[in-house]
Amino acid sequence: MGKGIYVATSGATARQRHIDIIANNVANASTPGFRKVGLAFEELMKDDLNAPNRHLVGVGEGRLSTAAGPIQETGRPLDLALTGDGYFVTEDGVGNQFLNRTVSLRLTEGGQFLDQNGRELKMNQVGEVDPAKPIAIDIHGMMSQEDQVIGRVEVRSLFIDEHALEPVGGGAYVTNERSGDGLPVETSHVMQGALEGSNVTPVESMVELITAERDFQSLTKVIQAYREADDSLVETVNRR
């Protein structure tokens, strides 16, 4: 088999991964708080079939875009968005934490603020929450009812590498060793009655998807040409 097929195959594999990521971006173009993921390609030097320093294409880790999405006013008091850096923090029932650029909450009879996935908003609570009273949240995340402060919403930022946050679906993200856990901050502004939209631009992403698919098709044609050439060579040798 021709050695060049390995170069083409590595490129096709990388492009297929690229297509999957772009397609996921497009599918989440209307998901509140979703941030698109980009893919880094890298050149790999690999010894293969006694051919040193083969130039292959590798795929790096996905990189999260930190560009903000458009703010959409909803008028709903428990819809929250952020302007500036940072993420809201939500927790599930077993201690796992999730980061969210925007949250659409509901207040339970027990005084818990839950998002659409049933995860509880993390906050520094200093007073009792009355589900029957309206909620006011200022730009600093201070939450009050009838001028009585009941807590402050936690906003987390200052990550080692924010681009390394991992998407887990629905516009939520989790930290890892590369991103670091981040720290609570007071610099982001909280907007009540608004949601942040996805930062995916559908038209741009569709153009990117079409280009990636064409590249993939070209590489598969190259692979097929190598295979046909190898088959022809084998037939010629067998006839001798």
Describe this structure in words.
By secondary structure, the chain is an alpha+beta fold. The chain folds into two domains: 4-65 and 200-239; 71-196, no CATH class. The protein contains two helices and 22 strands. The strands form seven sheets. Strands 7, 8, 12, 17, 18, 19 and 20 form a seven-stranded antiparallel β-sheet that branches. Helix 1 (4-27) packs antiparallel against helix 2 (202-239). The chain is elongated and about 90 Å long. The two termini are 19 Å apart. Mean pLDDT is 84; it is low at 49-53.
Outline the secondary-structure elements.
Elements: H1 4-27, E1 37-38, E2 41-48, E3 51-59, E4 63-64, E5 71-73, E6 79-83, E7 87-91, E8 97-100, E9 102-104, E10 106-107, E11 113-114, E12 120-121, E13 123-125, E14 136-137, E15 142-145, E16 148-153, E17 155-157, E18 166-169, E19 172-174, E20 183-184, E21 189-192, E22 194-196, H2 202-239
Antiparallel strand pairs: 1-4, 2-3, 5-22, 6-9, 6-21, 7-8, 7-12, 7-17, 8-19, 10-11, 13-16, 14-15, 15-16, 17-20, 18-19
Q: Low-confidence runs (pLDDT<50, min 5 residues)?
A: 49-53
Mean pLDDT: 84
E-strand count: 22
Order of H and E elements: HEEEEEEEEEEEEEEEEEEEEEEH
Sheet/helix structural class = alpha+beta
The number of helical runs is 2
**In angstroms, what separates the terminal alpha carbons?**
19 Å
Give Rg in angstroms: 25 Å
Question: What's this, in brief?
Answer:
This protein is α+β, with helices and mostly antiparallel strands and 240 residues long.
